[in-house]
Amino acid sequence: MAMNVHESSTDPDEVLALRLRALAHPARLAIVRALAQTGRCQCGQIVRGLTLAQSTVSQHLKVLKEAGLITGTIEGPRSCYCLDRATVQALADDLLPLLARLAAPPTEAEASDETDAPGNPDPREGALA
């Protein structure tokens, strides 16, 4: 059984990786885009917008929900899903600085550190071990 982000580690990198894995599928990207545009969708509406079987869409919704990116409620015979915008904002807040740092060239001090002493650039003990 997959672990819900709220039940998993509180390590920010693990939470970030879980959310990125949840988004790392074209169908799931299509689902979150659709939810972002409409604000709220019933599962049937999501299925009609994709060329996938109901069961496949349901599995993708489950992955997104476990990552905390969407919420779902049962309304009578229908399941209704919406984007968890606070979680998406938290993902953006974590990811944008990381991407900016990865895109930036190393500073002079960082470049000299590379040649002086090889080591673990990640401050968490054993992170790159």
What's the short story on this structure?
With 129 residues, the protein is mainly α. It is built from 6 helices and 3 strands.
Task: Describe this structure as you would to a colleague.
The chain is mainly alpha-helical. A hairpin with a 2-residue loop joins strand 2 and strand 3. It has a 3-stranded antiparallel beta sheet. 57% of the residues lie in helices and 11% in strands.
End-to-end Cα distance: 28 Å
Computed over alpha carbons, the radius of gyration is 19 Å
Strand order of the largest sheet: 1-3-2
Structural class: mainly alpha
- Summarize the main sheet: 3 strands, antiparallel
* Average pLDDT number: 82
Total DSSP E strands: 3
Helical content stands at 55-70%
Spell out the helices and strands N to C. Answer: HHEHHEEHH
User: What overall geometry do the principal axes of the alpha carbons give?
Assistant: elongated
Uncertain regions: pLDDT < 50 for 5+ in a row? none
The fraction of residues assigned to DSSP E strands is 5-15%
| Number of distinct helices | 6
